[in-house]
Structures are given as structure tokens and as C-alpha cells.
Amino acid sequence: MVRLATGIWVQAYLMRLGAEHIPAYVLAHGDDTGGAVIVKLATLDGRAQLFQRMPDLDTGATRWQAMAEGPEAEIDARLDRQRRSDPDLWIIEVESRAGRTLLDDPSLA
Length: 109
Description:
alpha+beta
């Protein structure tokens, strides 16, 4: 299976969110061709969640999995540590009181 360059995937994701009127921002621009992506969901109540794409060992497909949840300040500190250890990392922030990230959309896998 051919893998889409990360920069193109991020652009498509931001456009998809924009079409649904869900605000999203690139907090960290990683490697355009192969950087990992972490999506931060800010629910605008002082809390946040982090999502990362993980491989499904049974099928070989990838799916988005929650990797952390808690007070937004703690989530931001975790992201800072991750970014220092991986300069190729992309960090996308999605703001949604309803918790919508669209990561369950099969076209974004």
C-alpha cells in the first residue's frame, strides 16, 4: 500500500475539518514526507485528549487511538516533551466542545 506524504494528509485533514466548521491549527510542523502526527482535541473546558495513529497488527490497517487525556496544561506539557524528542512530529490542535475530531472517518485512516 502506498502511503500518503504526511504534509498532504495534514492539508486534507485541515480541509475536511474546515468543511465541518471545526477549528483546527498546526501547532508543530513536522517532516512533510514521513513525520508522525498527534492530534490534540481541546474541548474548551480546560481539558484535552491526544490521539495517535496506530497500526492494527491483525489487519495491517491503521486507526486513531486515544493516547492521553487530562487537564489541558498537562497535555500541553506532554506535547512539549514529545516535540523535543521528535522534531519531525506534527501536532494538530482541534477545538471542539462536542469532542469532534473526524478521526473516525475512514477516508482519514
